[in-house]
Design a protein that fits this description.
It is built from 16 helices and 28 strands. With 570 residues, it is an alpha/beta fold. The protein folds into three domains: 213 residues, Rossmann fold (3-Layer(aba) Sandwich); 105 residues, Luciferase, domain 3; 132 residues, 2-Layer Sandwich (GMP Synthetase, Chain A, domain 3), CATH 3.30.300.30. The strands form six sheets. The protein has an eight-stranded mixed β-sheet with strand order 9-8-5-3-4-10-11-20, with helices on both faces. Strands 2-1-13-12-14-15-16 form a seven-stranded mixed β-sheet, with helices on both faces. A five-stranded antiparallel β-sheet has the order 18-17-19-21-22. Bound molecules: 5'-O-[(S)-ethoxy(hydroxy)phosphoryl]adenosine. 5'-O-[(S)-ethoxy(hydroxy)phosphoryl]adenosine (WTA) binds next to helix 8, strand 16, strand 21 and strand 22.
């Protein structure tokens, strides 16, 4: 930001669009943002936050969140943003894993018609977080809150007392910029660590090149800052490039399904970046919500987070892009920090459902299950990256071995992404989805093990197995197979208790779409659950289970198929 002050201090850095369309948007210039960041940096310092300390942010999509992120960066503190839809338990786990000293939150958050009381969730979480010294609260909803003297402090009071000047702390390029927790195949979510220089180089380089950003463009990424897309492409990429970035507090359905397009027209958005799940949800509501809007400012469209289906791609291209805006389908991950395989808007030939070609410098390869690289065209395999790139994951917080194990041991010498991928006759890449035990629900990564752990907390649950199944809007839904200790329970009651448990341990986004009570699970003799079979059953394919001879009890498969009528949907 200091860099942009010289040339663009009056330029709008951030346009903030509130949840309620009748509330005034905010236009914050680079100068003003810089001033707020300096003030808040001084607040952090006055509370004893030093270089290397971890700060947890559990906040709504309000400008203070951007200020807090950048203030941590300014003083060399490590931010750990936790998506404000996660439960108290999930928040507590993340705070404790990286021993955060401070938490920044708001009284509450507006999400469409709903008001979430974030402060009470924080209160519940931090009872068990010995490392937390203070909680800073922004007043947004004016909900009634409990303020603990000395521990809890008000954002506005601290900012009023603070001053406008704060030097940026000098950092080594390889020091840590932030931690962001993400789900994997096993265990609890891990803290992906990104470095100062590499991450920022990756975020800015990919932002400018993939979107072909031009000075003066208004850019809007709809992601929440609680996810990597929000980090890299709401905050870091655009602000490093001196762009104007739109930040939206609300949801696409409020006050109606035309909200995105209303915002595009209102702020004359030139570059628009969203998730396929949002496109499918809006497409399902029909064109009546699109036609009232001109959408003539749009130049480039983007998608991220999950594979986009051909139908959604065509709808986006025809009705939003009016057949003139290139769509950049960008493949990347929390661990990659920035985009890896994506077209360069207006330069790379497009092919619907394909992320097309790697960015210059990125070298993907496909490998078979034995680890051999698959050469040539018209092939499919597990997606790996051969060489390092600037914004790659540096470690998993507090456990470097886990990082080596998860990403670098499946195929020695290569980074393994966890995704399956095709390479077509033109050498274009198409991501087919996760090949591990991660489910992608509406573009959000959820580990099957985490959901199973939550379900197994129910005292009548003996065992459970969770898989993904195709869902027309969300991309994938969560399907849980559950064994109960007795059969005489009321299944609906148990289902709602299971849903509550998942909500409590992870958050509402991880609640199973479908729960099927079964008497057994398909296991090998060594006790490993064969999820391949469960995934087939969950997606309605009840024939051709392949080789079931390794199963301890092959009959169990027929029993599960026969009891599908006992499945309860959300
Ligand atoms: C999936 C989100 C297909 C993929 C940036 C990846 C995609 C996971 C695409 C990472 C895309 C992301 N096409 N699949 N364009 N982009 N994915 O860490 O499975 O939340 O491994 O990062 O999302 O999710 P994460």
């Amino acid at each position: 930001m200091d860099r942009h002050l010289k040339t663009s201090s009056e330029k709008t850095a951030l346009i903030w669009e509130p949840n309620n369309p009748n509330e005034e948007p905010k236009h914050i210039s680079y100068k003003e943002l810089h001033r707020n960041v300096c003030r808040f940096s001084n607040v952090l310092k006055s509370l004893g936050v030093k270089k290397g300390d971890r700060v947890c942010l559990y906040m709504p999509m309000i400008p203070e969140l951007t200020v807090a992120v950048l203030s941590c960066a300014r003083i060399g503190a490590i931010h750990s943003v936790v998506f404000a839809g996660f439960s108290a338990q999930a928040l507590q786990d993340r705070i404790n894993d990286s021993e955060c000293k401070l938490i920044i939150t708001a009284d509450g958050s507006f999400r469409g018609e709903k008001v979430l009381n974030l402060k009470s969730i924080v209160d519940e979480a931090i009872q068990y977080c010995g490392s937390i010294e203070h909680c800073i609260m922004v007043e947004r909803t004016k909900a009634e809150v409990n303020l603990v003297p000395d521990r809890d402090l008000l954002w506005c009071e601290l900012m009023n007392e603070s001053n406008d000047y704060c030097d940026a702390t000098e950092m080594e390029s390889e020091e840590t910029l932030f931690i962001l927790y993400t789900s994997g195949s096993t265990g609890k979510p891990k803290g992906v660590v990104h470095s100062i220089a590499g991450y920022m180089v990756g975020a800015e380089y990919s932002f400018r090149n993939v979107f072909q950003y031009q000075e003066g463009d208004v850019y809007w990424c709809t992601a929440d800052i609680g996810w990597i897309t929000g980090h890299s492409y709401v905050i870091y990429g655009p602000l490093l490039s001196g762009a104007t970035t739109v930040m939206f507090e609300g949801v696409p359905s409020h006050p109606d399904y035309g909200r995105f397009w209303e915002i595009v027209d209102k702020h004359k958005v030139n570059i628009f970046y969203t998730a396929p799940t949002a496109i499918r949800a809006l497409e399902a509501q029909g064109l009546d919500f699109v036609t009232p809007y001109k959408l003539d400012s749009l130049k480039v469209l983007g998608t991220v987070g999950e594979p986009i289906n051909e139908e959604a791609w065509q709808w986006y291209h025809t009705h939003i892009g009016k057949e003139k805006c290139p769509i950049v389908d960008t493949w990347w991950q929390t661990e990659t920090g920035g985009m890896m395989i994506a077209p360069l808007a207006g330069i790379t030939k497009l092919k619907p459902t394909y992320a097309t070609l790697p960015l210059p410098g990125v070298q993907p390869c496909l490998v078979d299950d034995k680890g051999n690289e698959i050469q040539g065209l018209n092939v499919e395999g597990n997606l790996c990256i051969k060489y390092p790139w600037p914004s790659m994951i540096r470690t998993t917080y507090g456990d470097h071995n886990r990082c080596k194990e998860v990403y670098f041991s499946a195929y020695p010498g290569k980074y393994f992404t966890g995704d399956g991928c095709k390479r077509d006759a033109d050498g274009f890449y198409r991501i087919t989805g996760r090949v591990d035990d991660v489910i992608n629900v509406s573009g959000h990564r959820i580990g099957t093990a985490e959901v199973e752990d939550a379900i197994n907390q129910h005292q009548e649950v003996v065992e459970s197995a969770v898989v993904g199944f195709p869902h027309s809007i969300k991309g994938q839904g969560i399907y849980a197979f559950v064994i109960l200790s007795k059969i005489e329970f009321n299944p609906n009651e148990i289902c709602s208790q299971i849903n509550e448990l998942v909500k409590k341990h992870i958050g509402p986004i991880a609640r199973p779409e479908k729960i099927q009570f079964v008497s057994g699970l398909p296991k090998t003799r060594s006790g490993k659950i064969i999820r391949r079979i469960l995934r087939k059953i969950a997606s309605g394919e009840i024939n051709n289970f392949g080789d079931t001879s390794t199963l301890l009890d092959p009959e169990v498969v027929d029993l599960i198929v026969d009891s599908r009528n006992l499945t309860i949907s959300k």
